[in-house]
Automatic annotation (TrEMBL):
EC top class named in words: ligase
Gene Ontology MF annotations: ATP binding; UDP-N-acetylmuramoyl-tripeptide-D-alanyl-D-alanine ligase activity; UDP-N-acetylmuramoylalanyl-D-glutamyl-2,6-diaminopimelate-D-alanyl-D-alanine ligase activity
Keyword Nucleotide-binding (UniProt): yes
The entry's keywords: ATP-binding, Cell cycle, Cell division, Cell shape, Cell wall biogenesis/degradation, Cytoplasm, Ligase, Nucleotide-binding, Peptidoglycan synthesis
Residue ranges annotated for the Mur ligase C-terminal domain, each copy included: 340-466
Gene Ontology cellular component list: cytoplasm
Purpose: Involved in cell wall formation. Catalyzes the final step in the synthesis of UDP-N-acetylmuramoyl-pentapeptide, the precursor of murein.
Residues involved in ATP binding: 114-120
Catalysed transformations (reactions): D-alanyl-D-alanine + UDP-N-acetyl-alpha-D-muramoyl-L-alanyl-gamma-D-glutamyl-meso-2,6-diaminopimelate + ATP = UDP-N-acetyl-alpha-D-muramoyl-L-alanyl-gamma-D-glutamyl-meso-2,6-diaminopimeloyl-D-alanyl-D-alanine + ADP + phosphate + H(+)
Stated name of the protein: UDP-N-acetylmuramoyl-tripeptide--D-alanyl-D-alanine ligase
Length: 484
């Protein structure tokens, strides 16, 4: 972060220094978790359903925080430890501080949204840009009202590129966060059946995701997935230029399985993939074609669907001034955030595809097809609930069960009664794997099943929405801790 005095922070956020606060104390970072506070941090205490951050102000100061924000209606605004900046609402103040830092540093801002693939695409964009330009990207899925300004606050004076993903819980949410980021490049990966419980239908999801495109200025660039017709239609919502990409394959919203893009709606896209190959760990290599040029690309992440993510990354990095050959070199050494297409094991241990961070129908299909592409004497899928799907929840889970039955899997373990429709769908479709379909109540029961049947030369996929907690199972299978 740009070093700022407490007085300067107060001025930026429209707050007031309490009388006992030293105005020239220097802030060098921002934290909302007292456990992660470093020397020189500004602590932002937030009140939530589970706890109240104001309880940890003294802990944050003891760990080295220079000061803290406090709401004017809190008792701590009048009496409390020295270091207070009194504001109307700490979360709004955090947004304002993030916006100010972004404007002060003035990097090229690349923002990403989509129903699936946004975190992996963010990771790939950052890897491509870091090859030649100092780049800041949000950690993990820091994509909400807290994560976006915290990412902005992480900018240094010499940062040249900011890469940030944005999630959506409703209409207007992306627009609000885009007003903080003011992106130069907007990437939309997909519109799919994620968060339908909150947004209602796919048309509304498309409206929400398209708010990012609308936030561009006339000099901005929209990077749109031409394989997804709802994303491609956002072209008309862009005030600036539009660049399209088409990876085809399993992760496309329409479920295309083309390996060269020539049969897909994106065949005329600006960025296209040809000669797609998967190695023994299902990591894709391909030739990316753009304008009258091409570049060889390798993505060290398991799954055919990462072809589209990599094309989006190259296109976005190119819009930020990164030569595609340099961007491709960055992709070759990229590391995705934990629990996303994370393949571990081998060498005498089962291959474990840990994709347990979250799940929706599109990402579930992509993960299953990745499992089918992995080597292994037997292939097992351990699947759980796909949350927030609304009225179509049962049908979506049954469809995933049908897909399991068509991929030649050897066994299916479904975790939790709320995901039972996956098991029902697989059985209805005539699941023929010798391991059959097993419905278990929780991850511990799934572990017991796998301990009985899993062999050192097998492969297993672990995937569900985060609340199911299957990442612990994946960690146990490879003998590692579950923390990211």
């Amino acid at each position: 972060m740009i070093p700022l005095s407490l007085a300067a922070v107060a001025d930026v956020v429209g707050g007031e220094l309490r009388a006992d606060t030293t105005p020239d104390g220097i802030v060098r970072s921002v934290s909302i978790d007292s456990r992660s506070v470093e020397t020189g941090a500004l602590f932002v205490p937030l009140s939530g359903e589970r706890t109240d951050g104001h309880r940890f102000i003294e802990d944050a100061l003891a760990r080295g925080a220079t000061g803290y924000l406090v709401a004017a209606d809190r008792p701590e605004a009048g009496v409390g430890p020295p270091g207070a900046i009194v504001v109307d609402e700490p979360q709004d103040a955090l947004l304002g501080l993030g916006r100010w830092v972004r404007d002060e540093v003035a990097p090229v801002v690349i923002a990403i949204t989509g129903s699936t693939g946004k975190t992996s695409t963010k990771d790939l964009i950052a890897a491509a840009c870091r090859e030649v330009r100092p780049t800041v990207a949000n950690p993990g899925s820091y994509n909400n009202e807290l994560g976006v300004p915290l990412t902005c606050c992480a900018l240094e004076a010499d940062s040249e590129v900011l890469v940030a993903e944005i999630g959506a819980r409703g209409l207007g949410h992306i627009a609000k966060l885009a007003a903080v980021l003011r992106p130069d490049v907007a990437v939309v990966t997909s519109v799919g059946a994620a968060h339908l419980e909150l947004l209602g239908d796919l048309a509304t999801v498309a409206r929400a995701k398209g708010e990012l495109v609308e936030s561009l200025g006339p000099e901005g660039v929209a990077i749109l997935n031409a394989d997804d017709e709802r994303v491609a239609a956002m072209r008309d919502r862009s005030p600036g230029a539009v660049v399209t990409y088409a990876g085809g394959g399993a992760a496309s919203a329409d479920g295309l399985d083309a390996t060269d893009g020539t049969g897909s709606p994106g065949a005329s896209a600006d960025w296209r993939a040809v000669d797609v190959r998967l190695d023994e760990r299902a990591c894709p290599s391909f030739t990316a074609r753009f304008d009258d040029s091409e570049v060889e690309v390798h993505v060290p992440a398991s799954g055919r669907h990462h072809v589209g993510n990599a094309l989006a990354a190259l296109a976005a990095a190119h819009a930020a001034g990164v030569d595609p050959s340099i961007g491709a070199a960055g992709l070759a050494s990229a590391r995705l955030s934990p629990w996303r297409s994370e393949l571990t094991g081998g060498d005498g241990r089962p291959l474990v595809l840990n994709d347990a961070y979250n799940a929706n129908p599109t990402s579930m299909r992509a993960a299953l097809e990745t499992l089918a592409a992995l080597p292994g004497e037997h292939r097992w899928a351990v699947l759980g609930l796909m949350a927030e799907l609304g009225e179509g929840e049962r049908a979506a889970h049954e469809e995933i069960g049908h897909r399991c039955a068509t991929l030649g899997l050897d066994g299916l373990v479904v975790v939790g009664a709320d995901a039972a429709a996956i098991a029902a769908g697989a059985e209805q479709a005539g699941f023929a794997g010798e391991g059959g379909v097993t419905l278990v109540p929780d991850p511990d029961a799934a572990r017991e099943v796998l301990e009985r049947v899993l062999d050192a030369h097998d492969a297993v996929l672990v995937k569900a929405s985060r609340a199911v907690g299957l990442e612990r199972l994946a960690a146990d299978l490879v003998g590692e801790g579950a923390g990211p």
